[in-house]
Amino acid sequence: MTTYKNERNRQFPTKISTTSFVKLYILHLLKEKSYYGNEIIEEIRSRLHNKWEPSPGMIYPLLRELEENNYISGWWQEPDKRSIRHYRLTDTGYEHYQRIKLMYKSNFEDSMTIIKNTLSDIYNI
Asked: In this protein, which residues make up the domain named Transcription regulator PadR N-terminal (predicted)?
């Protein structure tokens, strides 16, 4: 996320956009193994303990964008049917993943501090 001088951060408490978060998560998952779109949605939902999941309308355009940028590569499970497209991380994608992972870390830490302090202050949790 880019913050300009004298500009307030109006994304409360999250300091990272949903799109940026999902792109990071897609690259993170594809670092581990290949997935297809619905598997990515299910895996994110599972890892977030069913509290949130990206929609197919978000995942598939992001997969196309990441593939166009050569961050991931895709192939059809059955090329004749073109029904399931698997993806894996490219070397360029891994380098990009490492960069944005580092770039977003402080944003996640700031968000966690805001949430923890809010829970403690208001709910005594």
From this structure: 26-98
